[in-house]
Write a structure and sequence with these properties.
about 20% helix, about 15% strand
């Protein structure tokens, strides 16, 4: 629904902005791993468009906002996390096309979008 009624989308994790950008850009090419995981759960009503086994199931528990881990709040659940993620909180930075993400590797990762127009 959001994809069809909003011009811009903001994605938050544990009370912090993870990604923000134009809706279609964010849905087509997310730049934060949490956004990728959320988009993998978007239902596809047409059975021919469903991708079997593509849903990302995040390990662990949602971060406790009163006791966030050091570094990136999402790192305990992120499949791309490195030592840098565990040590330093990534700043929200512009990636072009009006899109910004708080991920150390936002400009390097090839994350899956919804693939739905």
């Amino acid at each position: 629904m959001i994809q069809h009624i909003c011009d811009r989308v903001a994605v938050m994790y544990a009370g912090k902005l993870a990604e923000i950008g134009p809706t279609q850009t964010l849905f087509d090419a997310p730049k934060h791993p949490y956004t990728e995981a959320l988009l993998s759960a978007v239902p596809r009503p047409d059975p021919r468009l469903r991708r079997k086994g593509d849903r990302i199931r995040l390990p662990g528990e949602v971060a406790d906002v009163t006791n966030l881990p050091t570094g990136c709040a999402f790192h305990p659940r992120c499949r791309y996390a490195t030592d840098l993620c565990r040590a330093e909180s990534p700043p929200l930075r512009s990636l072009g096309k009006g899109q910004s993400a708080a991920c150390h590797y936002a400009d390097q990762l090839e994350l899956a979008g919804t693939g739905v127009p």
